[in-house]
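Let us work through a complete example step by step.
Step 1: write down the sequence.
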Amino acid sequence: MRYFVAVAEELHFGRAATRLHMSQPPLSRAIKQLEAEAGTLLFARSPTGVTLTSVGTVLLDEARALLDHADRVRERVRVAAGVAPLTVGILGDGTDPGVTRLAAAYRRSHPGIDIRIRDTDLTDPTCGLRNGPVDIALTRAPFDETALTVRTLRTDPVGVVLRADDPLARCDRLRLAELSERRWFQFPQGTDPIWQSYWNGGRPREGPVVRAVHECLQAVLWNGTVGLAPLGHDLPAELAVVPLIDMAPSRVVAVWNEGDTNPLIRSFVEIATATYCH
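Step 2: predict the structure and record it as tokens.
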């Protein structure tokens, strides 16, 4: 079936053989055997390549579904045996001490599990969950939670990041209205609108486009741009953060795909909840 799908997607035996890391003759023999078992042609052959017959088109849908199911079975067996890796997406916020404590606690509880980390920028608050490469994400809400399960681990007050020589940096606290005339950093087009709105204080703003935490800080240093950040994180001496008294706290969350029954995710969430709550 994998051979068939490769040929059906490439529509060329030579390219399919290269993709499968094999020579063309055994691939051709395998497809002919499959056609013999089906009792009909699956491909219409020509000097320039091949095209799917009507039967081949039907089989392609079924073959893809069958292979997807086989992959899921293999992964579930590996998980049950305790040998499957767990891929964790982390929003570009490596200074959070909670991540360090969680890593140590998880290693103690699951010393044999291979943890793979996918560090992501600020344009995808779900850290790749919707695209598939991540099993669970450590990130910040709010964002579109459709088809996702979200567990809040901690809430952090939020402040505005300013240059240290900015007159507003001398204030003990500020309101969002006092920043209405300032330029704010923006996220690229296509970023989750709920996420964008939160970090823009709930209204449209104008300013430079950024993708990562260090770009946000550089925008403040170089351009005097303002932006929001959780309190309690270390900043360069040239920057200051002033608490905002009318801004909802930022939630640190664990998030995973709704309905995912991977037991490694369940144990990860339990350890993360205990770690962040203490």
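Step 3: interpret the result. The CA atoms of residues 35 and 41 lie 6 Å apart.
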